[in-house]
Amino acid sequence: MARLRLWVLAGLLAATVVAALAGCSPLFPPVAPEPPNPDAQPAEENSPDAAVGAQPLFVGARWVYRNATSDLIPVLHPGSEIETEVLAEVRCRDALSGLFRECFVVRTRQGAGRETVSYLHRAPDGIEICAIETRAPGTASSRGDASQVRTFPSELFLRPALVLGESWSFGQRAGDFLSSEVLGRETVPLRDTILTLLGPYTSCFTNAWRVRSTYGGILADAYGGGIVECWYSTGVGMVKRTAESLFYELVAFRKDSEVKVLHAASAQGPYYLPVGSLVIVQVRGHAPTAEPGIAWDVANSDEVAADGILGQLSLSGEFYADRDGVEDAETGTYVFRFAVEGRGSTTLVLEGRYAPQESGWETKSTRFDFVGT
Question: Can you give the pLDDT at residue 355?
């Protein structure tokens, strides 16, 4: 009987291992579906196409990737992380039409190394790069256009919707090119638990799109090799990336449902938000140094702090300038970020100070009501 019990246990273990190798198994439990949100807002409250396509793009989105190669060859490839975050929406002047277009400000950084800020426009047939800014520790920033691409990950050139067998290309000048092809869907199990703002997420992705990209010229140097393969999960984004002997895996990201993005014209509320989620308010204005202009700040910061519901993630609104070619414009977007830290109700009042005429300064305000749940 003991021998029979041992054989049964061995058989169950072998079946579990085979299932794990074949795809998602109890070792990678699926995440339970989220209950309906009674405070769900219209889609336009968040950026368009926020939860559509293989690579979401909305203000507040964030992805963290770990250099998983360090698990195999720790001496040659010490562990490191790459973080990509969508900081704001601004307007960038198109070099061809001369018109301003809505662009996302996307920052990518690797540890204490070089930081890249990309200005991306979401076009119907893909993502267009309007401008690039790179910053290295202890040096002045350098600016340029799409011909100076030095960023990660590869979703910059990804189509909004992926179709099996689809291919596309991107060329800058002779010898510098990118060509991509959708190879199909695969199951991708990852090594680490993936974290979101509201808790852990499944580390096994079924039906992830596999995209192979071939780079030439300076793009091959920028992306770490001539051939790069990425796996994308719809609604999550890129979950794995391989380039030559290196590969990165997703360890943290923010879901669209965890971030409430509001604008000056958004409804007053109340907005019901779970503890642990993020609130971002964007308002248009002028650079703090521009005169006359509209500069925004929190008018009731003491009351908000006393309520203990919203924890402000910056002392004042961060200003992101519009881009006129490679130069900053005087106009731009103020971004206020708050973490939902407690249960109860609170009111946020933002005040803009401006001088419409020589008679003196005037103010305008916008108000939002929140309930932490």
Answer: 64
